[in-house]
Design goal:
Layout: H1 3-11, E1 14-17, H2 25-33, E2 38-41, H3 49-62, E3 68-71, H4 91-98, H5 104-119, E4 123-124, H6 149-165, E5 169-175, E6 190-192, H7 196-210, E7 216-219, E8 222-224, H8 238-248, E9 254-259, H9 263-269, H10 271-281, E10 285-287, H11 292-308, H12 313-326, H13 340-352, H14 354-364, E11 366-370, E12 387-392, H15 401-407, E13 413-418, H16 424-433, E14 438-443, H17 450-462, E15 465-470, E16 485-488, H18 494-506
Parallel strand pairs: 1-2, 1-10, 2-3, 3-4, 4-5, 5-7, 6-8, 7-9, 9-10, 12-13, 12-14, 14-15, 15-16
Antiparallel strand pairs: 11-16
Helix pairs in contact: 1-11, 4-14, 5-6, 5-13, 6-7, 10-11, 14-18, 15-18, 16-17
Length: 521
Amino acid sequence: MKISDLEQEAGKLIVGRLPGSDLPKDFERLLQRGTIGGVTLFKENVSDLEQLAILVSDIASSSHHIPIISVDQEGGAVQRFDDVMTPLPSPMAQARAQSKIKDAIERINTINATQSYLLGINCLLSPVLDVATQKKCPIVCTRAYSDDSSMIAEYAAIAARTIRSCGVIPVGKHFPGHGATKEDSHHALAVVDDELTLWQERDLAPFVQCLSNLPVVLTGHIWVKCIEDKALPASLSYAINQKLLRENLEYDGLIMTDDMTMKGITSMFGLGEACVMAIGAGADIVLVNGSLQDQLEAHSALVEAFSSGRLPVEKLYSAIERRNRLFNRRPDTAHPYKNREQYLELEKNVTENMQNVLEISSAALNVLKADFASSVEISNCESKIDWLVLTPLHDRYPLDVVSELNKLGCSGYSKINYSLNPDQAEIDKLAKECQGKNVVLMTFRAQLNAGQVELAKAVAKTAEIKFAVICDTPFDLELLPDWPLVVATYDPSNLAMQALGHFIKSKDTATTRSQIESRSI
């Protein structure tokens, strides 16, 4: 193979990232030359629907290769297009709603995949098959359907089949399971240190059961100690990729890595070397969600490895063959001027599904505890009760139910922001401010933010009427023993806050439970 040919072929194994809302000339050249084989889109790439449609069209038309155009569009905490397309409930909220709306998961994934297909996205980095077992896991949380492995396998299979039926390729992640870790692999190597049988029955099981529905599996930067003696993440592990996934589980689909620019990888191996190790271990595609220089470094390292023979060229051929099975047609895009009909269809689909997703998000709301049978009037649309709403400050999730209540005509709610992990001085100040008042306390991952637990204890002693809202995983419930009414949204997104606003306005007690049902969340 000529070096120039090798350079282009190696580019098919790299999916990169853009820095803004248009396609810069230097990134356009990467696509035109075949240096990269696609792009993953993020929030920074989106300003409005028309702009996004033009950008996707530019990526598709500029690429030398048939591009992989992917996005993390899971719903809830992780979605990139919720400001311009139909927002989606989190996977955990979808699972909760499923008990009331039997086709909730299929409906949400149909909306997600149909709009993605119309836009020109041909790869959804979803569904998530991680098991939400570690209460202090910072990365999975409501991205998981549940803490029940069988339920996850069932729901992920529905999601994957639905996405595929809409013409988009689903990606199961994060193999072989991220839910038992305490580390965020964006910042450090995540570790699973459970014994082999437990890990197989809990974390690996959903993937094993769902594998036939997953044309692509994404490997995480997770060190599974019962498989690897050395500190080696699954994304770089021959034992995980080749021995376990390819040989033991007989998987012949496409293997994609998580973002190779995460510090869980680069701090140990460096980007270029890690990309070579990933392909050597059995991966077919590396995600490089960094700068132009990062993408060039990854490309140069792979070209050198194949040229020198460090990586056998057969690995390149087999990776490309698997890629071509799935991505063998340039996607049609909804350019607002060049393909107006498709763009208008996308716009219509976005508008028509707003009520659909709100219904499912509302069905997910759940009263986890009501010690006095929810007798408290939590709505002030007609009464004159005033409420202080204590809201944690988060850089990604506004958690602004007060704005939603105002839109619904409910007055008397005042929002007070508090630090995500408040110190004692702030706790004392807020407890004093809540003296004799009616308080709604919003929590977000109190298991990870001890200051929220102390705030809950302090305010419970001073507030008159107390109503807590858990805005992420319901594990916070055990940290709120002094709060008589506790509601869970299973989702921190704006959509969930909209549903919560309707819940409060309607004074609907949802389905009251004195405790979390069995072990399933």
